[in-house]
Amino acid sequence: MHMARRALAELKKGDVVNLGIGIPTLVADLISEEHGIILHTENGMLGVGPVPADGGGAMDYPVNAGKIPVTALKGSSYFDSADSFAMIRGGHIDVAIMGGLEVDEAANLANWAVPGKPLLGVGGAMDLAKGAKRLIITMTHTNPDGSSKIVPSCTLPLTATGVVDMVITDLAVFAYPDGQLTLIDLMPGATLDEVRAKTGAGFIERLSD
Hints:
Number of domains: 1
Helix content: 10-25%
Strand order of the largest sheet: 4-3-2-1-5-8-10-11-12-13
Mean pLDDT: 93
CATH topology: Glutaconate Coenzyme A-transferase
Number of strands: 13
CATH superfamily: Glutaconate Coenzyme A-transferase
CATH architecture: 3-Layer(aba) Sandwich
Largest sheet: 10 strands, mixed
């Protein structure tokens, strides 16, 4: 949940935000009416609320792009996928928060295919990665085998090139000021030495005091 909270801190009132499957969906449960953030899903909904508190399913509630039941906030609207992707491709999504399999020094993203494993399809990830004004990636810092997900150059099939603005992992927060991968924050409980040891890519350190 630390990653979701850190991602929420990057959003501002009035932002139209699309949340990807996995860790990003947790952000929806943290957003209150006071935040003034409008959630969009590519399957055709604007004004997404948190997961239903009564445990209701898809027969009772609308679903997000990950097929998870969600609630609808006051003033929400529904539309078809053509209109939804027109919003995305037209540059009307302020921030996209999505998961990642690899991010590299050049802000490239791979998040939809692992060779040798069944393909689920890229969905709207390519459109969002290119169309959103800002792209935040939330993911674990390493793979189950301990290898880094932040790499010199992506080896997995790319989703989009040069698109990542920020990476939030369970250990650290990276951004790309001046086009260079830069460590800007440590997550709760993480140490600088641990981040250095577990990051495959080269990066600049610019931690605030």
